[in-house]
Amino acid sequence: MLTIKKTYTWEMGHALFKVGKEDKCYSPHGHNYRLIVEVAREDEKANPDTDMVINFHELDRYMDPLIEENDHKFYFNEDDDRFGGDDGYIALYCDPTAEALCQMLWGRLEAHFNLLREPISPYKLLPLGVKLISLELFETDKASAKIYCS
């Protein structure tokens, strides 16, 4: 299978609730997140018209709204009453761990890129025949969560 990967970066904060006050991740903090997006064509080859899976600049058009939406935002567990509904604060049904954030991003991208064939603003669909293969979300240079297409 022929795939391409592209890396996107942004700054975002979070606080973990379930770890308890003793854990340093309980305190609000931020990371320089890095997301590696891997896509392929459904026929597993390059497009014969372009000799590419997808143009990297075209992939940016699909990814940039999602990155912009998360840049300088703060995620927290909805059960954590230390945070409110201020602009830039986003409550999740779970702790915003690397694993949970990776799954959330996958779900949003998969829904918009692979499953639906109608554009839902502000996302644009990947061209017909291009599918999401994997996402790897890095919180730090040494810590990441990865999810694959099943």
Write a brief structural summary.
With 150 residues, the protein is of the alpha/beta class. It has helices at 56-70, 98-115; strands spanning 3-14, 29-41, 74-77, 89-92, 130-140, 143-148.
Question: Tags for this entry?
Answer:
alpha/beta; Tetrahydropterin Synthase, Chain A; 6 strands; 150 residues
Uncertain parts: 115-124
The name of the CATH architecture is 2-Layer Sandwich
Strand order of the largest sheet: 4-3-1-2-5-6
Instruction: Write down the CATH class.
Output: Alpha Beta
N-to-C SSE string, H for helix and E for strand: EEHEEHEE
Count of individual domains: 1
Tally of DSSP β-strands: 6
Radius of gyration based on Cα positions: 17 Å
DSSP summary: helix tally: 2
Main beta sheet, described?
Answer: 6 strands, mixed
Overall body shape: elongated
Would you write up a description of this structure?
By secondary structure, this protein is of the alpha/beta class. It has one domain (3-148): 2-Layer Sandwich (Tetrahydropterin Synthase, Chain A), CATH 3.30.479.10. The protein has helices spanning 56-70, 98-115; strands at residues 3-14, 29-41, 74-77, 89-92, 130-140, 143-148. It has a six-stranded mixed beta sheet. The chain starts with a strand and ends with a strand. Mean pLDDT is 87; it is low at 115-124.
